[in-house]
Design a protein that fits this description.
Blueprint: E1 15-19, H1 24-32, E2 39-44, E3 56-59, H2 65-71, E4 77-80, H3 90-110, E5 115-121, H4 145-164, E6 167-173, E7 175-176, H5 185-188, E8 189-190, H6 192-204, E9 210-211, E10 214-215, H7 254-258, H8 263-266
Parallel strand pairs: 1-2, 1-4, 2-3, 4-5, 5-6, 6-9, 6-10, 7-8
Helix pairs in contact: 1-6, 2-3, 3-4
This protein binds nicotinamide-adenine-dinucleotide.
Length: 277
């Protein structure tokens, strides 16, 4: 069975925007969701090439409110990926991940977009310990300026859901890779096929208010569960257990193994690990 095979959409008339479409996650979704929806609009500041059949393409900067208003016009569901995707000095986070994220939600509201799927991250909950299983009630615990920006996006999403009635899903993506790259990713790995099926599930779900599902394939040593998310039935088919006997490197030190965020936690770390409960 092809890795990205998914059930047909219940509402093919849905009009979908994909920001960050030129990136790693975006390219997998661009391919995997191709031909599925009435409108499929790619947006990025990087070159997206020519529009493929059934696509629209728009190049611009998420920090530009006028562009955000243009790309969210006549859209039902915005999948928002465009961001600085790892830790960086504050100015590199502030523009795309704070200002840009605000622009996208506000433009979506102004244009009557029904649903926003925000690419959040495991680094929004990175300072939780790996010997517990997180669920939707677990508080955010950012492990970096990057993780903090994802907590901002989640709080923004919650406010837009509560105040303005947008349906918002913040998908806390683990590690989207072709295969797990280290032993930590036996818990965090999200296969490309499961990424496509999870995002399709969120676009196609009948209704939700505000949810924060974790984005990973199956694992017998999970950091988290989606068992308490009943609004969406995720079609997850892959498992990191297939790689459990592979020769994967462990994280370099005890501290990075202790917390969900791994080396994002240990970078710049000057705290007291024993006080992090
Ligand atoms: N890859 C993962 O495993 C993973 C894990 C957790 C969260 N995420 C999140 O998923 C999203 C995509 O990540 P990725 O790994 O594909 O990263 P990526 O860097 O490959 O893609 C990000 C895209 O956003 C675009 N972008 C950045 N700044 C922009 C701006 N100012 N205006 C318009 N476009 C801009 C880039 O050009 C790029 O194409 C990010 O929000 C990231 O934080 C990814």
């Amino acid at each position: 069975m092809p890795p990205h095979e998914i059930a047909p959409p219940p509402r093919p008339e849905t009009r979908v925007l994909l920001t960050g479409a030129a990136g790693g996650v975006g390219s997998v979704l661009r391919d995997g969701l191709a031909g599925r929806y009435a409108t499929f609009r790619m947006a990025d500041r990087a070159d997206l090439g020519l529009a493929r059949p059934g696509e629209e393409v728009s190049v611009g900067d998420i920090r530009d409110m006028a562009w955000c208003e243009a790309i969210t016009r006549d859209i039902d569901c915005a999948v928002h990926l465009a961001a600085q995707p790892v830790e960086a000095p504050w100015p590199g986070i502030l523009g795309p991940n704070i200002e840009g994220c605000y622009n996208l939600f506000e433009a979506a509201r102004l244009n009557g977009v029904r649903r926003v799927i925000f690419a959040s991250s495991n680094h929004a909950v990175g300072f939780h310990r790996t010997d517990r299983v997180l669920d939707r009630t677990s508080p955010t615990r950012p492990d970096s300026r990057y993780g903090l920006s994802k907590v901002f996006g989640e709080a923004l999403g919650r406010m837009y859901a509560d105040k303005y009635g947008l349906e918002v899903a913040c998908l806390r993506i683990g590690s989207m890779q072709p295969t797990p790259q280290d032993r930590r990713q036996l818990a965090t790995w999200l296969s490309p096929g499961d990424l496509v099926r999870m995002v399709a599930g969120l676009i196609d779900a009948e209704r939700f208010h505000f949810i924060t599902p974790y984005g990973s394939s199956h694992s017998s040593t999970p950091f988290w569960t989606n068992d308490d998310i009943h609004e969406v039935a995720f079609d997850i088919r892959d498992s990191s257990d297939a790689y459990r006997d592979a020769d994967l490197p462990a994280l370099p030190d005890d501290l990075s193994r202790r917390f969900v965020g791994g080396t994002f936690c240990t970078a710049e770390f000057t705290g007291d690990p024993d006080r992090i409960d």
